[in-house]
Design brief:
This protein is an alpha/beta fold. It has helices spanning 30-45, 49-56, 104-120, 141-155, 174-188, 211-226, 243-254, 277-287, 301-305, 344-352, 360-363, 366-380, 386-410, 415-434; strands at 6-8, 60-69, 75-86, 92-99, 127-133, 164-168, 235-239, 258-264, 267-270, 297-299, 311-314, 333-335, 356-358. The chain folds into two domains: 19-192, Leucine Dehydrogenase, chain A, domain 1 (Rossmann fold), CATH 3.40.50; 211-354, 3-Layer(aba) Sandwich (Rossmann fold), CATH 3.40.50. α3 (104-120) packs across α14, α12 (366-380) crosses α13 and α13 packs across α14. The radius of gyration is 21 Å and the shape is globular. It binds nicotinamide-adenine-dinucleotide. Nicotinamide-adenine-dinucleotide binds next to α7 and β8.
Amino acid sequence: MSTATLTPVKPNAKKPATPETATPHKHLDFNRITDEQFLVAAEHMKLEKEIQMLLRTPYRELIVQIPVRMDDGRLELFHGYRVQHNAVRGPYKGGLRFHHEVDLNEVRSLAALMTWKTALVDIPFGGAKGGVTCDPTKMSRKELQGLTRGLTQKIDMVLGVHRDIPAPDVNTNAQVMAWIMDEYGKKHGYTPAIVTGKPVNLGGSLGREEATGRGTTIITREACKAFKIDLKKSTVAVQGFGNVGSWASRFIHELGAIVTAVSDVKGGIFNGHGLDIPKLVEHCKKTGSVVDFPGSKPISNDELLTLDVDILIPAALGGVIDRNNVSQVKARMIVEAGNSPITPRADDSLRKRNVIVVPDILTNAGGVTVSYFEWVQNLQQVRWELDHVNAQLEKKMVSAWDSVYRVHTEQKLPLRIAAYVVSLGRVAEATRQRF
Ligand code: NAD
């Protein structure tokens, strides 16, 4: 018989930080950051106050408790979140994050970013986000499956193929999506369109796994063209070598750029002549980290951010470039592949120094774009060829870049605010038409 104890985990419970998991952003109010960016664009556009009020406020927020019987017999209590920010342009859409620093505020902020992102690439979705406060690196597959199925049961009532469709985010992947689809299907019958980012074998789309990294690369290429930076001669540093960072590194390397540094939660690596990215991917598959890659020298995550490179791609967590390290950042262009990597104070300082910042809602919108293609394929019960998926993604990303760059040049706005102006315009218009 197991000796079960109940271990409550408070939503914002602080775990002791280890050198590996220490992140610099715990103190940040991500929702305030997103709200500030929204307000700058809204005021610039002279958006009606009542529309601003509607667009700043999430439609629905759900906090659930998820008890999980752990392998050692303990009953652990986790907290899960689903925030549905806005759905005037289509069903709520957004990823699920499993991380020990997930809290309601962060999920709120990420949900709002999804609303602006889906509008920017002009796909018929709104914005949502979910998460569970947990440390998946310390959980077995069985425990993670229990947690995912528990979460699905608890948020089931707000999900739906035409209501809210989750997808992967930090520390969740195709396997987690398969468990959600399976759990949801027990009650509702076969429903592949309930999640995107599923295994291809279960109705996932070809090209979805690499879509965010591919989209990041398309936007980097277009930005280089616009700002007359020769990508082939450029040095690049990428923070985070998970889904987004590893695929972005691969595609950028294929375009001829010299990726001199990458990192993950365990540390970073550097080679001034350029890292062999395909070999690094193999090394990572074998060892679970970029650390100790032959021919590279170790660097810390902090050092990576301040390397003398042409392009810096933060592709991990939020708030990594802040007022403490911004003055040491030497990159000419920062491409935000992860969500909210730059705080507003740091953003201002980079702008004053004419560092080009390509914003997250544009850069990393490739993932949700192919998620949309996956949803369409599921609803129509068809399968698109990979070439077709990639060609449609290319079109959507280039078109989004063009609309942001046009506003940037015509209205002399930073790229981030230009991106907000495009998305807010679309969401505000749909709101006016509904009211
Ligand atoms: P992931 O879990 O696959 O990878 C995250 C990577 O970041 C890992 O390499 C991890 O080791 C590293 N990391 C974690 N903490 C770190 C730290 N403190 N310092 C340095 N590295 C650290 O997650 P992902 O899906 O690649 O997401 C990365 C970012 O991109 C997130 O901000 C996410 O919200 C955003 N994003 C993801 C998608 C998607 O399709 N997966 C889409 C849009 C945006």
